[in-house]
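Risk register update: the risk of archive-format incompatibility is retired. Evidence:
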Amino acid sequence: MNKTTLLATAISVSFSLGFFFNSFIASKPEVSSQNINPTAMKLGAFSVSLSVKDLDNSKKFYESLGFSQFGGSMESNYLIMKNESTLIGLFNGMFEGNILTFNPGWDDNAQALKDFNDIREIQQKLKNSDIEIINPADQTTTGPASFMVKDPDGNMILFDQHL
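Archived output:
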């Protein structure tokens, strides 16, 4: 073997070993599913609320994507569909357009969270940031309440607390 081939082989082996040790043996930082920003508001469960034309047809479509009925009913003209932690609300004739929805106090199984920001606290933070509140929640009450905002592109966002 000539010196050039030997040198190229040694460099390749060194690079490969370095890559192996760096990729598989060196410790990697752990990624947390918790808020990356510790001061971020705790908004609870997230879902997309879709305005649908045919509830039964939409239900079948989302079932083909692996969703199953989690809440609501055909008689009530809405269904909550779930696939793992993803929630989609299908609403027939209840509103126009689609809405992003946050449920402070609930996890993605509609179970109560111990630690969350009350809807009135969220509303006040948004007001303090000069965000216009639509149908504001009464700041003097406790428990269930809701309000809406529009993002800069006109998308509606519903904050709906059930606790």
